[in-house]
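G., the chain you wanted modeled:
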Amino acid sequence: MAARKTERSDEMQIAERRHASADVEPARSNRAVKTVSVSELLGPSGILRIELDGEIYTLRLTRNQRLILTK
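Predicted structure as tokens:
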């Protein structure tokens, strides 16, 4: 029974965090969001290297038309 109370308590904490972060989201959603086509973003190679805080990430398009981001 104690394990169930802990599980519910954890679920409640997660729900509370989601609710708290939802209060912040509307301010972000007021910003304009840019849409870019995959072909424009990745170019003919189908690969894009992204640098973030000195780390390089690779975004690539698979044969099944899915995007994969790797570090």
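The chain has a mean pLDDT of 81.

Shout if anything looks off.
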